[in-house]
Amino acid sequence: MHNVVILGSGCAGNTAAIYTARAGLNPLVFEGHEPGGQLSITTEVENFPGFPEGIMGPELVANMKKQAERFGGQFKYGTVVEADLSKRPFRLSVDGEWLETRTLIVASGASARWLNLPNEQKLIGHGVSSCATCDGFFYRDKQIMVIGGGDSAMEEANFLTRFGRDVTIVHRRDTFRASKIMLDRAQNNPKIKWLTNTVVEDLHDVEQGVVTGVTLKNLQTGDVWRQDVDGFFVAIGHIPNTKPFVGQLDLDEDGYIISHGGARTNIRGVFHAGDVQDRIYRQAITASGAGCMAAMEAERFLEAEGH
Ligand code: NAP
Q1: Which atom of ligand 1 approaches the CA of 236 most closely?
Q2: Ligand 1: centre distance to CA 176 (Å)
Q3: How many CB atoms lie within 10 A of CB 92?
């Protein structure tokens, strides 16, 4: 029987592990299908407080893990595939093996949706990004492309005009899912160019190990052409990792956990932390803050229950 099981080893899960471990609760962290979370696939992080010279994303998240282990946090590879939260202790099936826990912190994140282009994954961190706030700074005076037609794409494109020489939005249709205000703002931005009814067919250049251009296709004319690009930002949405909890935790229409205040879910003893609930801020520092909140709530809950 575990006191605390934490799902996810990004900033949220690792911070929850540091706090619950330090409180003597011996947390068990399941690292999930993306150990280290989204930081593990970024390069330099310049906006996490406390690192005036910046720090590499994988190093930052590895440091958090080490810090949790120092206080007795245990980490295991594994992903929860099924859960029974109908009564306490909660039961979780981790890759087919069932275990029991008094509290659960769901910090399983939201995975960026990718285009699944042949070279996309190989160039993440080398020109391909899913986070303008994280990586925009590296593209000062460069040519930037943003893929998508929703609010995220508009917001990222607007933000990226602070850095790039120009920013081209590529969208597969000519009508937009983005809200009017966000679309207007982008359309009124003179640094933004538009390619509608257009899809990306390929990314170059894997041999050089960095993004140098894309192959595009106009879906109406069938034209295919190559265009130079330095920064390729994919903003086509995120998928929250909440599948095992459907029908048990309150989720919104896109699958994000609905908060019941603080770090609480609709089930007592189950807490949320990070991007699995937060579709707005999605930053390393906010995820860490949320992990701290979830840990403190789990600690208080266990104390109130006499454990
Ligand atoms: P979204 O609204 O689901 O939009 C995703 C966009 O990506 C759509 O334009 C979609 O095209 C496109 N797309 C999806 N899969 C694609 C693929 N395989 N290839 C090419 N294009 C693809 O996602 P989001 O923009 O991340 O927004 C998610 C939610 O967060 C929304 O509710 C949004 O309002 C909210 N949000 C709000 C703000 C804000 O208010 N500041 C900022 C960001 C996000 P189609 O339209 O053709 O399907």
Answers
A1: 7
A2: 9
A3: 24
What whole-number distance in Å separates Cα of residue 218 and Cα of residue 284?
A: 37
Rounded Cα distance between 17 and 224, Å, is 49
Sequence length of the chain is 307
Contact 29, 76 (CB under 8 A): yes
* Dihedral of alpha carbons 115, 116, 120, 125, sign: positive
Q: What is the mean pLDDT of residues 127-153?
A: 94
Catalytic residue among 11, 84, 95, 135: 135
3-state SS, 143-162, equals EEEEECCCHHHHHHHHHHCC
pTM check: above 0.70: yes
Gap from CA of 151 to ligand 1 centroid (Å): 6
User: Is pLDDT at 245 greater than 80 in this prediction?
Assistant: yes
- CA-to-CA separations, 53 to 41, 46, 163, 213, in angstroms, rounded: 19, 7, 20, 30
Report the pLDDT value the prediction gives residue 33, as an integer from 0 to 100: 86
Nearest to 60 by CA among 288, 293, 274, 296: 288
The verdict on whether 134 is a catalytic residue reads: yes
Which residues are 55's β-sheet partners? Answer: 45
Is the pLDDT at 72 greater than 80, yes or no?
Answer: yes
Residue 41 three-state SS: helix
